TrEMBL record, chains A, B:
Name recorded for this polypeptide: Molybdenum cofactor sulfurase
Alphabetized GO MF terms: catalytic activity; molybdenum ion binding; pyridoxal phosphate binding
Xref: SUPFAM superfamilies: PK beta-barrel domain-like
Domain of life: Bacteria
Amino acid sequence: MPALKPTKHSCEIVYLGVVPDREAALVSDPKVEVFAGFAGIDGECHAGLTRPSCSRVLSQHARGTEIRNARQLSIVSAEELELIAAEIGLDSIDPAWLGASIMVRGSPDFTFIPPSSRLQNEAGTTLVVDMENRPCIFPGKEELEPRYPGKGKMFKTAATDRRGVTAWVEREGPLKVGDRFTLHIPNQRHWSLEA
Amino acid sequence: MPALKPTKHSCEIVYLGVVPDREAALVSDPKVEVFAGFAGIDGECHAGLTRPSCSRVLSQHARGTEIRNARQLSIVSAEELELIAAEIGLDSIDPAWLGASIMVRGSPDFTFIPPSSRLQNEAGTTLVVDMENRPCIFPGKEELEPRYPGKGKMFKTAATDRRGVTAWVEREGPLKVGDRFTLHIPNQRHWSLEA
């Protein structure tokens, strides 16, 4: 039996977004459909087959080292954003404020789906989950605080364990709002030294 | 804290090999040093930024679909090959017979190191573990059986949970016999639905 196993779990794409220029703004512009190529989403500033390494991987690489880009996409879940909003005391959090590429609905405990899982839509477009994303202060500082003074600094803590995952494109194709992703996971036991 | 965490675990490269042409033979030719580029190891028939999908991912893709190549390298462990050999009743198993790209020594339970783990040597060359590799019948049929008649058919079962992992290159650089890999793992709790 192959190591990569389809599961009964699926989730719906309820938001798609593209960040045209991170330096200009963190937010993503909503889209109804995008094309996911091997380098990521067309027109997205986080696209690229490789990227200069950032502060998140300083334990592995000096800043600016050319590495393969496993952070082409940021995927969040609607249910987890609702939990963040509730904790901060807001009615909702717009996935655009987090610069999200995709928001899904229907996949429980989304941030912790196993590393190397695959998300595949009906067209066959396939994304590989690298691992959990960790929250930073910028959505709070740049997007929440100007809209809701006093709330910005609450974001990072509220988003802990709820910030979704980073991913890259394994099979090219379209992604559309309303598509359903099926979840495929590595069908293997846990490493015995991990705990 | 970043999601990718260095661990205290390390292992030594004790074998490097290149398979020049899988159609001609499964075995890898031993090397003392290779260059790992973004497409994989130079001169290796499994190299490529993409690959046509194979029987292992038929639950995800029609055979021959172009997908990103997460199987550039096959990495096995000396300790696990010793267990396979003992179970079959041989003194040793040559990693070349499995078409291995790399054999390491010193990493316990190697086949089950977490998906999306990184292996990084002193030069900074970094490999990403996709997931467990699953044994097939071919090393037994093509390599063991001609050498040790009657042993070939025992390989697949003996190699279960001991076949190592598949991997791809995240940061380019040299790999040499005698290098030490440090293991970096995704520092995240298990998915609550996985069990």
